[in-house]
Amino acid sequence: MRDGYYSETHDVITSDGYILEINRIPNSRYKKGPIKPKSKPVVFLMHGLQASAISYIFAGPNISLAYQLADAGYDVWMGNSRGTVNSRRHIRLNPDDRRDKKEFFDYTFEDIAVKDLPTMIDYVLEVTKQPQLNYVGHSQGGTNFLVLNSLLPEYNRKFKSAHLLAGVGYQRHFPNIVLGGAAITTDLIHAFAVQIGMIEIFGPSANAEVHCDESNKLSVECTLEQVKDTMLQIFGDFDIIAGASIKQYAHYGQNIRDRSFRRWNYYPMRNLMVYGSVAPPRYDLSLITADVTMHYTVGDVLLHERDVLSMAADMPNAKVRRVARSDFSHTDFVSAADAREQVLDYVVKRINEENKKK
What we know:
single chain, 358 residues, alpha/beta, 9-stranded mixed beta sheet, two-stranded antiparallel sheet, 11 strands, 15% strand, globular
């Protein structure tokens, strides 16, 4: 029990062998014990890049979304993607073994979307005996939702509602100058990082820092270090940072560079073999038929307002909501002192309204 909330831990195994932890809060505060299937509507929360389920509880009972939803009468489940501190496990591969590590961390946000998410969602629906659930995804958790339902559109029917908090997708107007500059050489950075074994970012065994000065500031090593420093500034609280693969960053980097939202770019010959086309296919958001609300802020340094509006326009049942505070940041959705006032109370209200419908 944490912060007065009874919780459960469930493990699931993906089709490619990753062991994922799912955390559950089935009751309101101070109420103990399991619940019967079909007794409550379900909400599934998915974290962002370099985060874990902790994102939805670390701000405490007065702010955190998981607690607000549990107190509102929902059966709350929180996913942990492959490679995070809670899901850094595999049936065959050891992420701390030098030989296994390269294979273990060879995944992008698409693997999380089409392998991790379906495994977790299907498990939650099976345990709860519910036909649908409500989804909330922050940052990469929004990316995962968009990718899942565009590549596997049959999953649309499993979502009663979806709220994407700074859900990253289109990158035509990426606002961060530092990361935008680094994205130009994203494939070179990725290849170099893999070569030297820097394939896990902010994992339990942190890589040694690189000393950068005028003599080497333009090197691949220093560009990679600059990316890590920039992300630390954005994330803010190092205590809640979970591990991630360098390939997740590289996939976002490719999309930023190409001003697109598409699948991993192997480059022409391999693309032709994998996708049947020279260029990687774009994720088709018109196939996302679920009821989606995209929450965004003009103070976001990772997602531009114009890209949010374009994504919503391409989805048949999407709407947008801009956060009132103009300097509300990308991570404020899960951590700000006024997160409830700015966005979370509205999310709970809308989920309440959706679940009253027959």
